[in-house]
Amino acid sequence: MNRIQSVIGFAALCLGAVLLSVPVSAEEKPFRPIAGQFPPLEKAHAYRGELVFVDHTNRRGSLRIQSEGTYFRNAPHPFAMLPYGVIRYHGAPAGLRDIPIGTVLHARGFLPPDPKLSSVPVLPVNNRNKTAGYSGKGIAPAENHLILLEDEPSFCQREGKVWKLQEVELQNFAGKIVARREPKIGGTKAEEETLTFDAATRIWRGREKLEVADLIADGIWPASGKKALKNQAVLLGITWKPTPSNIFTRFHISDIWLDEVAMQRAARNQTETHKAFIRTRWMPGWIDTVEYGKFGTATITATLFGGMDESLYADFKKGAHAQMNAVESNLKHTHGAYSPAHMASKGPILEVTKIIGEIPLGSSGIQIDFKTDLIIEGIRPGRNIRVRPSHWPNVNIPREEYLGGNKPEERFPTPAIFPKY
Amino acid sequence: MKHTLPLLAALLAPLTPLFAEGAPFRPEPGKFPPLEKAHSYRGELTFVDHTNRRGSIRIQGNGKFRFTGPSPFAMLPYGMVRYHGAPADLRDIPLGTVMYVHAFLPPDPKISSVPVLPIDNRLKKLGNTGIGTAPAENHVLLLEDETSHCRRHGLVWKLKQVTLNDHAGFITARRELKAGGGQAHEETLTFDAATRFWRGRERLDVQDLIAEKIWPANGKKSLENQTVLLGIIWKPTPGGVFMRFHVSDVWLNDAAMERAAQNQTETHKAFIKSRWMPGWVDAVEYGKFGNATVTATLFGGMDASLYADFKKGQKAMLASAENTLKHWASGTAGTSQMASKGILANITKAKGNVPFGSSGTQISLKTDLVTEGFRPGRIVRIHPNSWPIVEVPRDEYLHDARTTHEDRFPTPDIFPKY
User: Fold this and answer.
1) How many CB pairs under 8 A join A and B?
2) A4 pLDDT exceeds 80?
3) Which of the residues A48, A109, A403, B247 could staple to B191 if both were Cys, CB 3.0 to 4.6 A apart?
4) Are A221 and A212 in contact (CB under 8 A)?
């Protein structure tokens, strides 16, 4: 009898274990991105959280992910950008270095394409369904290789949403705003959310950068008490700060863009920052095919990665001279201190082709054919490269952004830098 | 023999500047080290581990800047960070910002959270990077950006000429005393379409200056000593130029700079109110049954309104912290639940010169339950009753049941070796 009970007990345990992992296995075999193919965005796992650590030269960091539990207890969760992963800040292309620590970001992540080479911890496939004490479920998903990382205004602009302000309540230059994130035009009424703000919240109006004190001085907000804001449509920058009164998850407003001009000016500034960055670090992409000729010559077809300003892609012109260098998954240049331009394969761009139809996220939809008389190691199908049209400035990049040798730890950074909580 | 002495003298010569002042100076627990004994340098912030109050800086030496590997630094517990002329935390400073540093040798090399280097490292030539790019003085008393540095020293930038083409170009300028006088040399800096110009409430860019005909669309213009403050970063420079800084921000008038400082001050005030005021214990007078009177000095560099919140007779909480200023917590019990509670029995303000790192304000807290960690020289955080009670995030406290030796004393392993 005891044996039967044990067997039933064991069976129940197994069933429980199976049920716990159902949400992942129900979606068939766990999906992993494959080299040479941009994974479909709809297969990504979506979450959001506060940026708490950045290792920008290795394109990785940590997010404190929002879940159903007590937010402050959630340990930072490491993530790595996929080589073609897109970062957006203020509605414009960005690098991790551009995003202030504390910014709440929306992430779309996949399982590590190759767990052996992951620069962040590899977690059990069903980790997103696990409950971690008071933190609740979903604070450490295994889908930590990101195809998209974007801040609140980028997310809202991509989805055609705005924040509609309902009411402000303030005292001593700080307080709460009740608002709803809704489609800009029409759509269903969203749930109300309460967010905090304080005297450091930046309020952008056209060219102006204002503070709560300015809005009070201008008679727009009262010095204290409540005011109805009548669905005022704005965009918000969101961070997180610890909240008093035992409220465990309430987000904080870092910025309010009161009008479209203000938001466009912020986007323009970020776009210019990123354009200068890409022109000095070169356009990333991957190799589609290599057709080898004689004595080191080759014709290389490469797809440029997406998410950059259009003007950068327009710089790739048929007949123009270019340079191509092999890079790692973190987009670091290889070949050491001689500088990328010194070591790169050189030659003309034979053709620039724009793919017709739907372009997957991560790709620019632009392919270049590049002919060189001296092909270097690392330019192989599926591998990552960086390309520079010759009229971009020829500069030397800083030490931490290139590989100094062939040390495996430098090529494939390990997750050892991330603390365990 | 006659050849040996000159050889010996030549070998020892590089060490002379260090040892001429006697034994190498290290800060001691319970004493704020004099700023004039610090080694100073400047460089670009390239990495931040803000919860452990450490990071890396690419230090300007006499060689080629781009070869210079980031040099790790740790803030001393009483080390001050300033940004836009206001108190700041490391998390507030954008990567790429050029910072001025005043630093010391590790007070206790055994528990240094950054690599411990040979004492004479600042005199060593490190390949193409030159001399001074990895000093052993990597425990920082003061870390400040260009605007903070200028305002502390009464300096401004006087703009001479701008050369621009396609919304980018060069500015030649001199950093001088606001009141005139002193030595200055002309410097060339780059700017681009992402450079921000601040004028009163306005944030402008190069395009706006061109549209307003303040700057020409192309070519040169004399700027006739226009007085501004600059935010400085570094970007790789074309034309084989190895060492040229880049202008990230230009504050065109005092009102604009005051507004930036005000914003940063408010950011930091909210931060300190939620993380508590750091300080160290000067003395503990034990009573009976867990009673004690703890006297502590509050660390310096915060907004004056924060110190004004410590009032005699008011309730307060005192919690032990680590050199990283991390709190302790336990399971469901947050920092305030773990802290000693009591009454501020006395507040004294030091007269005369207050050393850097100190606020000059000493408080005495009388508690009926003194907790572990309140020992002379040890770090604490203090919360006056009027500040909000909140829970700090997981990466900013040590969990008493799970914390390892490495959590309390982070090792330098996180920093790559170049």
Assistant:
1) 144
2) no
3) B247
4) yes
User: Does the predicted model carry a pTM greater than 0.90?
Assistant: yes
Give bridge partners of residue B83 from the DSSP assignment. B86
Q: Does B327 touch chain A (CB under 8 A)?
A: no
Residue B414: closest CA among chain A residues belongs to which residue? Answer: A417
Cβ–Cβ gap B399/A421 under 8 Å = yes
pLDDT of residue B17: 47
| B331 close contact with A: CB closer than 8 A | no
Protein fold of A26-156: OB fold (Dihydrolipoamide Acetyltransferase, E2P) (2.40.50)
DSSP state, residue B327: E
Nearest by CB to residue B395, choosing from A76, A202, A280, is A76
Q: What is the predicted pLDDT for the residue at B62? A: 87
Would the CB atoms of B270 and A241 count as touching at under 8 Å? yes
Nearest by CB to residue A64, choosing from B69, B267, B393, is: B393
pLDDT one-digit tens code per residue, A380-390: 999 999 999 99
DSSP B315: E
SS (HEC) of A45-83? EEEEEEEEEEEHHHCEEEEEECCCCCHHHCCCEEEEEEE
Q: For residues A419 and A349, is the Cβ–Cβ distance under 8 A? A: no
Cα of first residue to Cα of last residue in chain A, in angstroms, is: 44
Spans of chain B, pLDDT less than 70? 1-22, 331
- Cβ of residue B263 closer than 8 Å to a chain A Cβ: yes
Among the three residues B240, B268, B296, which one is the final residue of a domain in this structure? B268
Indicate the length of chain B as a whole number: 418
Domain end: B109, B134, B149, which one? B149
Reported as a single tens digit per residue, the pLDDT across B122-160 is 999 988 888 999 999 999 999 999 999 999 999 999 999
Residue A16 has pLDDT above 80, yes or no: no
Beta bridge partners of B189: B171
Any A CB within 8 A of B390 CB: yes
Residue B96, chain A, CB below 8 Å: the answer is: yes
Q: Name the fold adopted by A283-415.
A: Elongation Factor Tu (Ef-tu); domain 3 (2.40.30)
Res A26: pLDDT: 43
- Domain residue extents for chain A: 26-156, 160-263, 283-415
Distance CA B328, CA B340 (A): 12
The Cα of B237 is separated from the nearest Cα of chain A by a number of Å equal to 6
Whole-angstrom distance, CA of residue B128 vs CA of residue B103: 24
| Interchain contact, A100 vs B58, CB within 8 Å | no
Judged by a CB distance cut-off of 8 A, whether residue B221 touches chain A is no
Confidence bin at A145 (pLDDT 50/70/90): very high
User: Could you say which residues from 169 to 208 on chain B have a Cβ atom under 8 Å away from some Cβ of chain A?
Assistant: 192-194, 196, 198, 201-205, 208
Q: How far apart (Å, rounded) are the C-alpha atoms in residues A315 and A392?
A: 9
